[in-house]
Specification:
heterodimer; A: alpha/beta; FAD/NAD(P)-binding domain; Enolase-like, domain 1; 3 domains; eight-stranded mixed β-sheet; 15 helices; about 25% strand; globular; disordered C terminus; B: about 450 residues; alpha+beta; OB fold (Dihydrolipoamide Acetyltransferase, E2P); Dihydrolipoamide Transferase; seven-stranded mixed β-sheet; four-stranded antiparallel β-sheet; disordered N terminus; acyltransferase (chain B)
């Protein structure tokens, strides 16, 4: 790891244009139905403090000598007669990650943002939702008298102040947003305000919506415009009683009874928040099973732990075909139709409805027609190197798309990783991101996390490719630290190849699962085999021993390739 | 055995209950069925670890009617350590699930019935019906005869599930209620299922007539339905004949007469049970019964009023008992017995509940040792589950006092701030030997007891 000193410096080229009104030019943060942890690269440390690079191994080697001399600064002059080496459209987490790495690689970089820096994740997604979930976690603990009593604690009638909770979420978003902005300013990234449109090869215009009056040229362009909440037709949003996560995160009310349409990550996390604050929740899920994206075993347990014990009921296999906001003293009306037969099933009357049916790419008005690119359901088609492909399937040179806008994996940290991968390529080092090693998490209480394949996916792959799959599981009830916390609910599950020791997937439901997953995801990213990692030592007593337990329980038929006890390098 | 029996004389309801038991309604029929149909096997809650006393059913892997082969995983059980798949030891058909997913059962109790052939499924299911009608809303699911549960589960608030009140349970979509509509909040639906309350029978008090949790709770506490299960079982007695007492009944008779030599008097009290009901709801999943809670509360009050725990053996002295042993009257087949919770003031509520379960099982098997039914220093008798609101008990010889507990029911009360509200209240009535226990003693005892029950946090210390 190299480390460099990031020195604050004002933006060199004063290219900040007047008030763009692009409302949702946000970089990616969620996969359909998901609110996520954002990987905000270096954002908190950027003001003249020591910054640790998170660049991949290949980058480290190159960066090290240069870093000794000075901190990375935005390249003063772009090559080849262009205004910039790189222009990024969209300053969400994906664009931010790409910008930081680009400057590190010596590229003259600008980022165009029509709304606020930080995108969905920071402003309307993972960040404020984590603030609400932090509150809900504590409320749950305080209300669980039996749990507290069994630890010898006494608490009397805990309550909350809705506005103060909402402020906490809002303040957190502002703080992270300013950290993010400063981290880019500090290294001299030009932040251009406005709505970006591609007008031709290596040419971008930006400005107010419909009046893109400023034109710049760039050697490479990255589209990172992200996504917006998807609202199925027939649903009328009023922002008060029928709303999306954008409104819900402001926590303007806590309804007695709220229907949540969609039981993916977003829905699940909000059910955690609302039930902790005293609401009753009804899930409406189009598929036959709740939490369809999860490993089935995890979903089953999650249903037991996160749904059945709470004031939640659900309707599965139904579409909300029509939702009418509350008015004239009438409640919110939700028409449910059978997902298969389309027959009317019933009408729900609730106090509010949260639409959490996933996210739609925000790619309108990007001028893609100018370069013969056709979106697929709004997503911009890319190859495995994030290079945009046109209507004929050919790669459009010097144009990339990362994050929710390409739909490969709608997670903030995936967008950032894709951005870094693109910069690696621009800098002359071929790089293909392994999406299977990108972890995902759902921040309920307890948390759920996963990386790689689910068990059915792994078995399908094994059938096709002719290898064997093994599964080992362990319970949090067998973990000392979890028991000390009185939080024994949860399992961890490892899916692997017994012939090679390759990790195919890890799924965890339990205390701090979101933090635990990285040992597995890093092992997958680095290709570490079970026969090696099982010899590694975990501190006792820690929750990390849950994974240790899994690794040790795995039966691998091949020999040990090398021992972790041997020093790898001096 | 004869003279050792304790007894609560109750008014007629209980007497007719005893008669029914003796000459067998469903109880006997069920037993006969068991004898004949040995091919219907019970699947028991297994002990998955040495420390496990009860297990929670996580999921049934098979549905009723499914064919099972020996070794098939049939149920997932959550123990204190982990979730385990439990396999069947026999081939057959899963005929009836006695303990549904999500509920707990003590180790060794039947959780399902396995029929050897498909033809036997209906039979097993009818057998299961008598199982389930006997288990009240608590987690106890050992196979008691239907009427026996009555006195055993001394729980004033939750009525035994009335057959008429069981609404069509539609697990995947609990809100869907057939053709007609009832708007009920998710928690209200959950509670309704738990308390076996028919949502259609409730008028909602929420927005736009929505049924909310408190409506369901109020409906569950309403006494109207309580008489139903009792009325449903008709006493099967040989009319027009004289039937001699059994040994146990003879003992009861003897004790009743002896009690006439004791100058007794009675003091009643009305106690608000809202907090106790809440506590019960919270911990019943851990096997705690209302009987244990009442016994514990009584024992704690007796600690402060030792004279109420005393007795007069010779007509000349107080015998102050060193331990507080709560005897609880239980109607069993053809009679009545009073298993004793010894040192009820010293044991925690969970131990007490386990102990009570053991005692009742032993009583049924007629295996109680003398000190397990004759060492009581204070007796409890509860007819609340029948909707009896108040009654009068006869003092068992050799003890100082007995408390008759009525049903807890919603009662309109005036509050101190001049409002009118509804509170769950129950009436208790203590009969005591006036040679040693005076009116003011009982009054003070009852005041202490009501304080404990109305603020029951110390019951679970």
């Amino acid at each position: 790891m190299h480390s460099g000193v990031a020195v604050s410096a004002p933006a060199s080229a004063s290219a900040i244009a007047g008030g763009g009104a692009r409302s949702e030019a946000a970089a990616a943060s969620r996969r359909p139905g998901g609110i996520r942890l954002c990987g905000l690269r270096g954002e908190a440390l950027a003001r003249g403090s020591l910054r640790i690079s998170h660049a991949p191994a290949a980058a480290r080697r190159v960066a090290a000598p240069r870093a000794a001399a000075a901190a990375p600064q935005n390249g003063a002059v772009a090559g080849g007669g262009f205004d910039y080496d790189l222009v990024i459209i969209g300053a969400g987490v994906g664009g931010h990650g790409a910008a930081l790495h680009a400057v590190e690689e010596g590229l003259k970089t600008a980022i165009i943002e029509g709304d606020v820096v930080g995108g969905t994740c920071v402003n309307r997604g993972c960040v404020p939702s984590k603030a609400l979930l932090a509150v809900s976690g504590r409320m749950r603990e305080l209300h669980d008298e039996h749990h507290l009593k069994s630890m010898g604690l006494q608490v009397s009638s805990p309550g909350y102040d809705r506005q103060a909770v909402a402020d906490h979420a809002n303040n957190l978003a502002s703080k992270i947003r300013s950290n993010l902005t400063n981290s880019m300013k500090a290294i001299g990234v030009d932040i251009l305000t406005g709505f970006g449109t591609i007008v031709g090869k290596q040419k971008v215009r930006y400005g107010k919506v419909g009046f893109p009056d400023k034109e710049i040229t760039a050697k490479n362009i990255i589209i990172a415009t992200g996504s917006v909440p998807f609202v199925p037709k027939g649903i009328e949003i009023d922002g008060k009683t029928v709303f999306t996560s954008d409104h819900a995160l402001k926590l303007e009310s806590v309804p007695d009874w709220i229907a949540i349409v969609g039981s993916g990550y977003i829905g699940l996390e909000f059910s955690d928040v609302y039930t902790a604050l005293g609401s009753e929740v009804t899930f409406v899920e189009a598929l036959d099973q709740l939490m369809p994206g999860f490993d089935p075993e995890i979903a089953k347990l999650a249903q037991r732990v996160l749904i059945n014990t709470r004031k939640i009921d659900y309707h599965t296999g139904v579409f909300a075909s029509k939702i009418t906001p509350a008015k004239d003293g009438k409640p919110v009306l939700i028409e449910l139709i059978d997902a298969k037969t389309k027959e009317h099933r019933e009408t729900l009357e609730v106090d509010a409805a949260l639409i959490a049916t996933g996210r739609a790419p925000f790619t309108n008005g990007l001028g893609l027609e100018n370069i013969n690119v056709v979106t697929q359901r709004g997503f911009i088609p890319v190859d495995e190197r994030m290079q945009v492909t046109d209507a004929d399937g050919n790669v459009v040179p010097n144009l990339f798309c990362i994050g929710d806008a390409n739909g490969k994996l709608m997670l903030a940290h995936a967008a950032s990783a894709q951005g870094i991968s693109v910069i690696e390529q621009i800098s002359g080092r071929d790089h293909i991101l392994n999406h299977l090693s990108i972890p995902a998490a759902c921040f309920t209480h307890p948390e759920i996390s996963m990386v790689g394949l689910t068990e059915p996916q792994a078995r399908e792959k094994a059938d096709k490719e002719g290898f064997e799959v093994s599964v080992v599981k362990t319970s949090f009830k067998a973990n000392t630290k979890a028991l000390a916390e009185n939080e024994g609910d949860g399992i961890a599950k490892l899916i692997y190849r017994p012939d090679t020791g390759e990790i195919l997937g890890v799924h965890i439901l339990g205390l701090h699962a979101a933090d635990l997953i990285h040992e597995a995801s890093n092992a997958m990213a680095l290709g570490t085999r079970l026969q090696d990692i099982k010899l590694a030592v975990h501190a006792h007593p820690t929750l990390s021993e849950v994974l240790d337990e899994l690794f040790k329980a795995a039966k691998v038929n091949s020999g040990v390739s090398h021992s972790v006890n041997e020093p790898v390098a001096a | 055995m004869a003279g050792l029996l304790h007894l609560n004389s109750t008014l007629l309801p209980s007497a007719s209950l005893l008669l029914r038991n003796r000459s067998g309604g469903q109880a006997v029929r069920r037993r006969r069925a068991c004898r004949v149909e040995a091919k219907i096997r019970e699947i028991f809650m297994p002990a998955l670890s040495s420390t496990m006393t009860e297990g929670k059913i996580v999921a049934w892997n098979a549905a009723e009617g499914d064919r099972l082969a020996k070794g098939d995983p049939v149920v997932v059980v959550e123990s204190d350590k982990a979730d385990m798949d439990v396999e069947t030891f026999y081939d057959g058909f899963l005929a009836a699930v006695l303990v549904p997913a999500g509920e707990s059962a003590p180790v060794g109790s039947a959780i399902a019935l396995l029929a050897e052939s498909e033809d036997e499924i209906p039979l097993a299911q009818s057998q299961a019906a008598s199982f389930s009608s006997s288990s009240s809303s608590s987690s106890s699911s050992s196979p008691p005869a239907p009427q026996e549960t009555a006195a055993q589960e001394a729980s004033p608030p939750p009525p035994p599930p009335a057959p008429v009140a069981v609404s069509a349970p539609a697990p995947p979509s609990p809100a869907a209620q057939g053709g007609a509509r009832v708007v009920a909040s998710p928690y209200a639906k959950k509670l309704a299922k738990e308390l076996s309350v028919d949502l259609f029978s409730i008028t909602g008090s929420g927005p736009a007539g929505r049924v909310v949790a408190k409506d369901v709770e109020a409906a569950a506490a309403a006494p109207a339905k309580k008489a139903v299960p009792v009325a449903a079982a008709r006493p099967d007695v040989p009319l027009g004949s004289t039937v001699p007492f059994t040994t146990m009944q003879g003992a009861v008779s003897k004790n009743m007469l002896e009690s006439l030599a004791v100058p007794t008097f009675r003091v009643g009290y009305t106690i608000t049970t809202g907090a106790l009901d809440d506590l019960y709801k919270k911990i019943k999943g851990k096997g705690v019964t209302m009987t244990a809670l009442l016994a514990k509360a009584t024992a704690m009050a007796l600690v402060q009023h030792p004279v109420v725990n005393s007795s007069c053996r010779d007509g000349q002295s107080f015998t102050y008992n060193s331990s507080i042993n709560i005897a609880v009257a239980v109607a069993i087949d053809g009679g009545l017995i009073t298993p004793v919770l010894q040192d009820a003031d010293k044991l925690d509520i969970y131990t007490l509940s386990r102990k009570w379960k053991e005692l009742v099982d032993k009583a049924r098997a007629k295996q109680l040792q003398p000190q397990e039914y004759n060492s009581g220093t204070f007796t409890l008798s509860n007819l609340g589950m029948f909707g009896v609101d108040r009654f009068d008990a006869i003092l068992p010889p050799g003890t100082g006092a007995i408390m008759a507990v009525g049903a807890s029911q919603p009662t309109v009360v005036g509050t101190k701030d001049g409002r009118i509200g509804i509170k769950n209240q129950m009436q208790v009535n203590v009969t005591a030997d006036h040679r040693v226990i005076y009116g003011s003693d009982l009054a003070a005892f009852l005041q202490t007891l009501s304080k404990i029950i109305e603020d029951p946090k110390d019951l679970t210390f």
